[in-house]
Amino acid sequence: MLISCVDVLPSIALTRSRYNVAPGTWITVVRHPSDDAPLVMDQVWWGYRPHWAKEKAPEPINATVEKVATSNYFKGAFAHHRCLVPADGWYEWLPVDGRKQSHLLCREDSEPIWLAGIWSERPDGKPGCAMLTEPARGVAKEIHPRMPLALDEESLESWLDPHLTDRETIRQVVHHLPADMLTHWPVSTRVNKPTHDDADLIEPIAS
């Protein structure tokens, strides 16, 4: 999964727009670096490996909502180190006649999307993250069986609260972005190469 992340926070200007953000790179997130630290927008590595993991431990880019709160690998971060990834949308690929057509999924109103993530200090001392995924909803099901967990605006503060650690309480106060707010369209297969990073990538094309 690649995401398109452009300037999204009115109070914080990003240095440049990015239209093709690949796993295994530095991405912008909003997080509390520690329980008592103020909220910051900074860069973390898109690849999750907690500091206590062995050298050959996996480095997933995603964590499923079905297991993130119970898996030994993720549950500590889910309880204490949640983050948000601001994005304009994300890319998925639809099989069509033996090929895969790139699609951009985004909000119909063009507002930013807040994707739920978790982070942990990596063995090298730098932060790394994974994005949460869930079964696809609404029009996203037309493209791929799963999608990132996008949150509604009322849930953002609770998701980021490091003192909110109980799984059931989090489930009660954190809610999806309504599926009927999403749309999608086909885009250029140039997006398949992370070295391509320009505004033309998000323009609709004839499918």
TrEMBL record:
GO biological process, one term: protein-DNA covalent cross-linking repair
Lipid metabolism among keywords: no
This protein's UniProt keywords: Covalent protein-DNA linkage, DNA damage, DNA-binding, Hydrolase, Lyase, Protease
Disulfide bond recorded as keyword: no
A molecular-function term among this protein's GO annotations: single-stranded DNA binding
EC number: 3.4.-.-
InterPro entries linked to this entry: SRAP (IPR003738), SRAP-like (IPR036590)
Record family assignment: Belongs to the SOS response-associated peptidase family.
Descriptive protein name: Abasic site processing protein
Lineage summary: Bacteria, Pseudomonadati, Pseudomonadota, Gammaproteobacteria, Oceanospirillales
